[in-house]
Amino acid sequence: MRKGVTPEYWDEACRHLVKRDRVMRKLIPQFGEARLQSRGDAFTTLARSIVGQQISVKAAQSVWDRFAALLPGPSTRISPAQVLDLPLEALRAAGLSARKVEYLRDLASHFASGAVHVRQWSSMDDEQIIEELVAIRGIGRWTAEMFLIFHLMRPNVLPLDDLGLLRGISLNYFSGEPVSRAEAREVGEAWAPFRSVATWYIWRSLDPLPVEY
């Protein structure tokens, strides 16, 4: 996917949400022309998500830069074959834990063998894609849902395991009272078929910097 692609449905989604939801009516105008943008290719995006697990954004970028420096070509696009060719010691020396090295190799194997059907994703529904992705070690449902929202730009994903979404729903809809997943799902029903877009604005209400993945 080209750098900085914005979903075609965004403006239609905003009009729909402003009509259907009182909180969205207030939130959406606050962020003007800001939009979700997709960057990079599928394999690189997932590799970055594995590298960044359980460490700060700054630390993740530092490890990624060292990892990418081991490979020929730009760090914005790496290939499964390149990762599989790297010696274990080189990956560990870049600052990757033994577990993350395993995860990256498993990701590369899935892509190299065709076990993930990247070319068919456009005709597959969200749950089918999630099922393919969670079969890869180190990728859980949350990571798969972030990938659907930020990379494939699917319009109707509601990531109920996302703490930011639950916190944002609590603050914007329940005066800061804790919310259950069931309550969050109920709020999200009014957002369909653009739950990804509403989720993005909920995240923005917590952090005015654009969310990128």
TrEMBL record:
Keyword Nucleotide-binding in record: no
Extent of the signal sequence: none
Domain HhH-GPD: start-end pairs: 51-207
Keywords recorded for this protein, A-Z: DNA damage, DNA repair
Pfam families noted in UniProt: HhH-GPD (PF00730)
Top-rank lineage group of the source organism: Bacteria
InterPro entries: Alkylbase_DNA_Glycosylase/TA, DNA_glycosylase, HhH-GPD_domain
Enzyme class: hydrolase
EC number: 3.2.2.21
UniProt entry tagged with the keyword Transcription: no
Catalysed reaction equations from the record: Hydrolysis of alkylated DNA, releasing 3-methyladenine, 3-methylguanine, 7-methylguanine and 7-methyladenine
Record protein name field: DNA-3-methyladenine glycosylase II
